[in-house]
Amino acid sequence: MSPRKPRSPTAPNSSASIAPIPRLMPKLFVLDSNVLMHDPTSLFRFQEHDIYITMTTLEELDNNKKGMSEVARNARQTSRFLDEIVSSAITDIDEGISLQLHGTKNATGRLFLQTQAITNVLPVYLASGSADNQIIGAVKFLHDTHQNRVVTLVSKDINMRIKARALGLAAEDYFNDKVLEDTDVLFSGIQELPEDFWDEHGKDMESWQQSGQTFYRVTGPLAGGFVINQFVYLEHDKPFYAQVKETSGRTAVLQTLKDYTHQKNNVWGITARNREQNFAFNLLMNPEVDFVTLLGQAGTGKTLLTLAAGLMQTLEHKVYSEIIMTRVTVPVGEDIGFLPGTEEEKMTPWMGALEDNLDVLNKTDSSAGEWGRAATLDLIRSRIKIKSLNFMRGRTFINKFLIIDEAQNLTPKQMKTLITRAGPATKVVCLGNIAQIDTPYLSEGSSGLTYVVDRFKGWNHSGHVTLQRGERSRLADYAAEIL
């Protein structure tokens, strides 16, 4: 056996032979038209990566720009953004146009527009006349010609993403509109305290009474994570229910709650049937809280509690001049066509929940008799106005109790439009169930209701409660659980 040769200084595992790691190329995202019509600012949401827009996408924007719908408005806004970007280009369009001058500083990528014909890149079994297939064809062309880059289709259309993946192309949903990836981590407004809470946080505790309420100043590790107007509770030997009023480092001030489960504190004849309903009443009846969000599945009492609080503060306490109720008119099944009458008459079929709850509230006073209840119902209806979302822009509601029902069907932009209608001394209450979204392209993570719950968290004049237990009937509770 011959002796082994000494290792060469340029052997494969020597440091001299290691090639420098190439700098990663930015990704190239091909945007579908439905992404731009869903969020015009998506042009500036891809940070250092480049975006590519096909001529088919521009044609679809042009076809959808007419009308007063949200889609039409977004198509027009996208066209304005593109016009501003392209008209100020100082380089050849083929080289890409910098987005940083027009969007946020984070958008350091470039915009590419299709400037050449793309043909014969798709299999014959895909119809060439389809707009979706033409965009997929552009993705495949870019994938084949830019092999050193990751080319990805971004679309809200599930079937389009499936077709792209079947051809071996990268495709994904548009995630930037989502407030949360997982709604399980959405702020619930409620936190259960551990059994040893007072042992850990009771040292040097201060307590005092003010306006019939007891306040506790506690210091400890949990107090640093509390949120203003969050509810905390302890259900062990001695139940304790409180609301966080102040936070500062590891110190927080807790205020005990008014007990709305007791008949003496009933609200328009209604008492809270569980812990979460009691928390909700403490927000709804507090004049210092201007914005309330209530989440919960069907039958948890969102509308009933809100209407009872609204009637009590409008007719009894005279805090508000009237109740205004609105909701998104998205049908569950097929649309039944145009509805006759005035704005309020057109909204009546959508307000079945209002009528059902008014019947419940009007029967709480058994001593009034049939005539008395009828007169009370007429008085109540005279103080409740039903409004359509279509005519909200430009309005200002002063000293009103505004209820936005089925708010999970609103986009973040629509939610902003509605909440900014609030004038002095107006309270806004948003109700909804993010598991029942009927609006196309909206999900639990991108719903306007999820958006405001997350953004208003911690403001001194807002509060949120997720209602857990159904109180409608045993049948409704069981159906919600097993179906």
Report the average pLDDT across residues.
82
The CATH architecture of the largest domain would be 3-Layer(aba) Sandwich
Specify Rg, calculated over alpha carbons.
Answer: 29 Å
CATH domain class of the largest domain = Alpha Beta
Low-confidence stretches: 1-23
The class by helix and strand makeup works out as alpha/beta
How many discrete structural domains?
Answer: 3
How many E strands?
18
Q: CATH-wise, what's the superfamily of the largest domain? A: P-loop containing nucleotide triphosphate hydrolases
For the largest beta sheet, what order do the strands appear in spatially? 3-4-2-1-5-6
How far apart lie the N and C ends? 77 Å
Beta-strand percent range: 15-25%
The gross shape turns out to be globular
User: What is the share of helical residues?
Assistant: 25-40%
Q: Please summarize the sheet with the most strands.
A: 6 strands, mixed
Given the structure, what is the number of helices? 14
CATH names the topology of the largest domain as Rossmann fold
GO molecular function, one term: ATP binding
GO cellular component, one term: cytosol
Family: In the N-terminal section; belongs to the PINc/VapC protein family. Belongs to the PhoH family.
Keywords: ATP-binding, Nucleotide-binding
